[in-house]
Amino acid sequence: MALYFFRISTGRYSGAADLPYEFEDRAAAWTEMTEVCANLLSGIARSLKPNAEWSMELLDEDKQPVFRISLVGEAIGCRAS
Questions:
Q1: Closest Cα to residue 66, out of 74, 58, 78?
Q2: Which of 9, 17, 21, 52 makes the best surface tag, with the fewest CB within 10 Å?
């Protein structure tokens, strides 16, 4: 079993969990990460602003990224107001 940490970033703000989660392997960690993201994304998408970014990373025991899921809101061809 390996220890992993979740880190959520929104724009320039980022924070990693202090308490680790234990998963059997990377496949199990990915499955849990996608389930957590699925539960969070509808609320995040409703409040996402144009040209904003949100991401969740799964970090290994050394707090190095293993997986990342990102949501980006882009204003294309729009004038800034």
A1: 58
A2: 17
